[in-house]
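Deliverable D5.2: sample structural annotation.
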Amino acid sequence: MKTVIAALNSKYVHLSLAPWYLKSASNDICEIKILELTINQNKAEIMRRIYSEKPDILAFSCYIFNIIHIEAIVKDIKQILPKLKIILGGPEVSYDAVEILQSNANVDYLVCAEGEMRLKWLLACIKAGEKPKEIDGIAYRDGEKIKFTPPVSTIKDLDELPSPYTDEMLEAAKGKIAYFESSRGCPFNCAYCLSPQAGGVRSFSFERVKTDLLRLMRSDARQIKFVDRTFNCTPARAKEIVNFILKEAAGDKKTAEKNYHFEAAADLFDDELITLLSGAPGGLFQLEIGIQSFNEKTLAVSLRKTDLTLCERNIKKLLAAGSMHIHLDLIAGLPYEDFSSFAQSFNRIFALRPHCIQLGFLKLLRGSALHGDAEKYNYKYSMLPPYEVFETPWLSYDELLKLKDMETVVDALYNSGRFIESLKYMVAKFNSSFDFFFEFSQQLKSYYPEGYGIPSRELYNIILKFAREKLGAREYTVFSELLKFDFFSSDNSCNPPTEFVRYEIPGVHTLYDADRASRNRVHYERFAIDPFGSTDSDEDSPVDLKFDYSKKNPVTGLYTAEKI
């Protein structure tokens, strides 16, 4: 009995973790093959890959980003493999199980909630020709009827699960983003999230974490992302793991060259953990912190318990260290968050100056409390994955569309990290950061109504046109020079947009000749202002800078520049 577990990832660079857990748990039942696929492959190619394996059983892990693709494959695959048994599992099918089976005639079984042991027991039943009557969390067909016992059991001791980090898995991780979990569940009950359904936090033992993590650290994966919903919910445990990574990275180049990503709650950091992370080598750690909103009422009804003052204090400390990339999240569409309130939330996030601001849009996930309250709040949202909200009593459809336009600009200008100094100067000329991003997004939309496919070169041209309209002559000169500085700090092509004013540096060839050994790794550029100095003075003198393209900041990705 050959089973194929197909991982339909969002991108080629991702390596899904769930299929490897499932394979490790069920290897003693039957032969299992994992296919790493992506939603960007066409259906014909995916079906070809599946057919070439000639499986008896085909299983998919289902999420909001891949369920539509999986349903399309499921509708066709049994035409060429009519005896195939199809199993779906994962968060997207763990709720409304009977309804999902009713609407997907070619699906034979659903595995709801935690899947490792349930899939193992199900495969054993199929192999023995029996119905999975005694297994909770399995929906299946029994003739014309659908049978389902809701899931009630969880794995009490996670260490009992066989490790997914096998030689085969580590080979598949080469050059990819690999995932790691040291715990399951979350201590919070946020109404927009599925984590509360996991029933609290369960953790692997620290010995198990060290064993598995070390194998992954020594692999050729390029980044390790912890999938723990709140990595620092137990600060003492978080410090143990961080210390372990620091110790191994100090003695092994391969582990030190990786990046380790954690999702964390800003108000749960203690000073000791902040100090530990702050003292790490630059770029070793990356934090994603969900603020979601600064509206106290919004957070209260969303069951998001957060000390916002403490959040801001801790985030400032983490950013001040300059040693790690900090990513902050906001969600548009939460209860009681209107356009003005969201603008205030954005301004407070921007004032912290994280490296990335993620503007998310509320999705009413199946199984979440807000999905159950959709009628109560009069939400209008997509009935299809990813169930994104169209309109709320506080945000109109038109306003949400405008925020999406703004999201495009935030990604292109701010999150790209290519416009740091010029943005800092431009934003200060507006009433607020939100006002700038919103206003520029509307101008950008006039050039690119679809909101995507904006060539990076054209973006420089458009923002310079915008600056001419909004700034005085002196201010425009300062802005354009800072924009030029940002370009050479982030782009080593030495081929800037033609809109920039260029100045000749007397004797520049002598400079290159004196630096012959690194001639191909340096660039000299003259600026009408001092990018490192005050922009308030009306008296400027040219400043010559040397950009060293062999030296890059491990956190910002920017190249080193110095005066000559």
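Annotation notes: The longest helix spans residues 397-415. The first strand starts at residue 2 and ends at 9.
The annotation will be released with the project's public dataset once the embargo ends.
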